[in-house]
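Last lecture ended with a question: if I hand you only a sequence, what can you say about the shape of the protein? Today we answer it with a concrete record. The protein is EF-hand domain-containing protein. Below, first the input exactly as provided, then the predicted structure, then a couple of comments.
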Amino acid sequence: MAVKHHRSTLSKHLGWYDPDVINVEAELRKKFAARIKTATDPIEVLRAHCFSQCITGLKSLTRAFTKADKDDSGTLDFREFQRVLIRTGLDLDEKLIRKAFSQVDTNSDGIVSFEETTAALRPPVASHRLELVQRVFLKLDKDRSGYITLDDLCGVYNAKKHPKYLNGEWSEDRVTMEFIKTFDASRDGKISEDEFRDYYVALSASIDNDAYFDLIMRQAWNL
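The predicted structure:
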């Protein structure tokens, strides 16, 4: 059941669905929701709140961070940092947010960068899992541009099995672009390696067994 469960979720990304199997993303939200009650470290609490909402919690933060960074400096002060969290539904106790901000602000200069923030909030993941995710990205990035594009996914992503293609509502390109949006935090119509990694790092947090994670990644992407 467990193998079918996780395989089903990645199969959904490739264009087919199994409505009878619990979605692994729901399991992820459930796990992080439970951690909210037990976590004591401010960063861990913030991470738990972030991913208890959705698997793409970091993607939501990325978009909110970009909007808050009016001067394109790539950094935020505490109040801007707090507003970013509120905009993504994380209206938490100010004392907790200050402690988390201080942990991210390692040089104590009163500002944090986007890279520092996402690195702190990204769930821990084993190096061999990261290597597997990188292998998949390199396979999909056919032209070695550093991005997965619509053209790269041709022949890999099976849009023709998507329900909205089957009922004539969406074209193949529309289905594929909707798939890209699952990862695309910057909304530039393509998937960077960081965006791809962040998605699967979050997904990895819901899969305890290394063999299952390895199996579903290899079968989903034909490694």
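Comments.
1. The CA atoms of residues 132 and 214 lie 8 Å apart.
2. The longest strand covers residues 75-77.
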